[in-house]
Amino acid sequence: MLAKFPTGWTIVLLLAGWTVLAALPLSAEPVYPETILTPGETDSLSRQLREEFSRLSGELERAEEAYDSGEFGPKNPALSDRFELARELAGILKEQIAAGSADSLLHARRGMADFTAFLRFFTEKKALYAAMRTAGEPRAISVHDFGAKGDGVTDDSTAFAAAVAAAAEADGALSLPQTSLLQSDRRSFSEPGA
What we know:
By secondary structure, the chain is of the alpha/beta class. Helices cover 51% and strands 15% of the residues. It has helices at residues 39-68, 77-99, 102-133, 157-169; strands at 2-4, 9-14, 19-25, 140-142, 151-155, 173-175, 180-182. Strand 2 and strand 3 (19-25) form a beta hairpin. Helix 1 packs antiparallel against helix 2 (77-99), helix 1 runs parallel beside helix 3 and helix 2 runs antiparallel to helix 3. The radius of gyration is 24 Å and the shape is globular.
């Protein structure tokens, strides 16, 4: 265990008996993760995170509106709790991005992955409910229902795979709109039993 003392010395302690193993002088300036990024890199990361956060916040708002209007099916406590967690995470990310330090921005970048995972879950849940709602009717499942952007820039592999799985599970057809779907991975699909 390391303990930092105001005098600028670090003492390594052995937990079993709190025996002092070494006392080492530290430099006057502590080394923090901010030194990992240059000021230009910090500014660039800040802009990137602000843009991504704005886009993802809009997606969360639209998902909550869809949930409130019944597009996710009947309200249930587990899904309401997930929306609450996503809102709390959004608040934390907003604070970290606003702080603007390299350390807070690096933490925000890691948190964006969790925020994105929440939004992917909501998109898939909504699409699955839409597919189940029309059970018994012939239906086409669109890759857009699973979050595909079709802009030729965004990697739509995850959305495409989820749509294929949902179409197979719901015994439906996969609808591929006339857009530019971008996929980073290649997969082969065949008709069942072929």
